[in-house]
């Protein structure tokens, strides 16, 4: 059972890490604790499994990357891990995963999300991925709208 102080720390963390030279110091000051205490508490949360994932959520549109395409690939099963790891290593790829079940009219088994400043840039990235992986059978499925991109919030404060 978490104490109120621990819930307060979690609320502060889920509100976002400030863009600062010492972001944990900024958060610690708001929480009226030392940076060392805050970092120790975060480490405790991770060790206890209270926090399972701790990472950045980048809004790529704000950085000028407004074109997004899910590229679906038909990769021979014996090469799926090799090709998947290769494609996942590209900076322009944010998600890369295998879908095990193939359908009669949908032979694609590897999915990679690519981001570019334009649809043409996404096509260029995909061409590089194709050459690097030696996989020529693919389709680009461009995003037309972003429906949700927000982390789950715990211990919300009442309005």
Could you describe the 3D structure shown?
The protein has 2 domains: about 5-50; about 60-140, 2-Layer Sandwich (Alpha-Beta Plaits), CATH 3.30.70.3460. Helix content is about 35%, strand content about 15%. The two termini are about 25 Å apart. By secondary structure, the chain is of the alpha+beta class. The protein is elongated. The protein has a 4-stranded antiparallel β-sheet.
Indicate the multimeric state: single chain
Strand residue percentage:
15-25%
Query: How helix-rich are the residues, as a percent range?
Result: 25-40%
Label the structural class: alpha+beta
Tally of strands: 4
Query: What's the SSE pattern?
Result: HHHEHEEHE
Question: Which features characterize this protein?
Answer:
Alpha-Beta Plaits; elongated; 159 residues; 2 domains; alpha+beta; 5 helices
Q: Which helices and strands appear, and what pairs or packs with what?
A:
Blueprint: H1 4-14, H2 23-30, H3 35-48, E1 67-73, H4 80-88, E2 93-98, E3 110-116, H5 119-133, E4 138-142
Antiparallel strand pairs: 1-3, 1-4, 2-3
Helix pairs in contact: 2-3
In brief:
This protein is α+β, with helices and mostly antiparallel strands. It has helices at residues 4-14, 23-30, 35-48, 80-88, 119-133; strands at 67-73, 93-98, 110-116, 138-142. It has a 4-stranded antiparallel beta sheet.
